[in-house]
Amino acid sequence: MTEPTDRTEPAGLSFDLTTRPWIAVQRLDGTQDELSLREVFAQAGDLSRIVGDLPTQDFALTRLLLAVAHDVFDGPADIEDWADLWADKQCFAPVPAYLDAHRGRFDLLHPQAPFFQVAGLRTGRGEVFSLNRIVADVPNGDPFFTSRMPAVERLGFAEAARWVVHAHAYDTSGIKTGIEGDDRVKGGKVYPLGVGWAGTLGGVMAEGATLRETLLLNLVAADTTDLRFDPGDRPAWRRPVCGPGVTDDRRVTGVRDLYTWQTRRLRLHADAGGVHGVVLGYGDPLVPRNMHTREPMTAWRRSAAQEKKHGEALSYMPREHDPSRSAWRGLEALLADRAEASQGSDPARTLRPQVLEWIARLSTGGWLPRGFLIRTRVVGAVYGTQQSVIDEIVDDRLSMGVVLLHQQDREYATAAIDAVGDADRAVMALGDLATNLARATGAASDGPRATARDLGFGALDGPYRVWLHHLAEADDPHNQRARWQKEVYRRLRGLGDQLLRQAGDAGWEGRMVAAKKGPVWLNSALAERWFRSALSQALGNAFSDDPSDPAQEPDLSPEVPA
Hints:
This protein is α+β, with helices and mostly antiparallel strands. Among the domains are: 300-409, no CATH class; 412-538, Topoisomerase I, Chain A, domain 4, CATH 1.10.132. Helix content is 35%, strand content 15%. A 3-stranded antiparallel beta sheet has the order 3-2-4. Strands 8-14-15 form a 3-stranded antiparallel beta sheet. Strands 12-11-13 form a 3-stranded antiparallel beta sheet, with no helix packed on it. A hairpin with a 6-residue loop joins β16 and β17.
């Protein structure tokens, strides 16, 4: 939807984000509320978390709050400064005075400097577009579950403010209508310049028991190794108001800058009843390559393709989340420290998020008790069709004791990572069983194999999360891993028995198939022997409750993919 002319908002409209409720939160008793910026900080110890309209909105709003906190404290400078904040239940007491000092820049409808917007922003023809352009649960294409279809006609000021923050973080790419005064406009359009900054990340943050704990756990100190903070670092509301085009010579100065980076140029159109339209264009681009010294809330992967393209000896890119894999299956990327991720003298292939390196430092230094529990939350957007739509949103949590991040006591982290390997190998054996049963009946094997693997990981998902949650309480992590292996064996043996029953008479009769050592008559009985042997070997040959389990059978495996 577009309107033919650019209408001017009525004079005198205001929505002060420092005092008006707009951030959706969950209290410790489970009830939900909307609070102003001032109230969120004042009540942070009584709140459980941010609960935005989408998980990605939670992440974007948390980063906004972190930018405020970093700027209020001008730090923390080091771990001792952080410890003082952690010990002080009233640590956010300076926030109201800070918000009062910058109150004008937090007015969503300010006539000269509206929050995260550009006053007077307009296209060459004065179009005003549908709010679909910033409301991410009604994307261009297949929508998420929503009652808004076919379009968003109007938003209240509180919700509009949340989507403004989200647009800078996660807006899609694609061709956008050109903004008047932007030198990048060609033929009335600006061609794709990439998604919002947070959209390039596999977002990771630590959640505590309260929002206060969450904010402090992610409040990384300025003396953190391998993370750069420039002296002039400041958030968007302490910078000059953006113009319609790209800001000349912009370089990231630190987390305050990065958490509020203006990736878009945006202007809401409103009247006294709410927001009814938007103008949206590209803002300041940001290249993710080698930003690992600036961005703490994502893991990183070494990219050979980027090294070749740019002639660099080392290039790191954000490690995005795979929506087909639960967070626990990628635990190594969260727990492995840099020494473990390196291979000899070669640089690390992956880097865990700096926010977890920071919490590892707190754990190792004794600033957090060994049994202190955090929830590692992973959040990300998965884009499709040349990044012009959001296809999926990833949102998952893992509860773990901070001892798993301890830099000198690595036994717990090793046990947790090895337990994921146990699950992977055992599920592979279950997939092989499904493949062999399909071959025995003459059916296609790809579908049954994928289904069996999904069943296997699904059966282990809940038990692993519970096991990980309690791992830090154990005196001996090796014994805990042995208990996990027994649990995996029990559950996957049960799923294997289910697949064998489903194979029926055709599976029992079997047929001749090719194997590594020549043709073999493959039926469900032989497939079961192979499965039980592979499952036992995957879990250390020590967890069968059946004395006839052929764990040491000779290699009769068929020629099937791993």
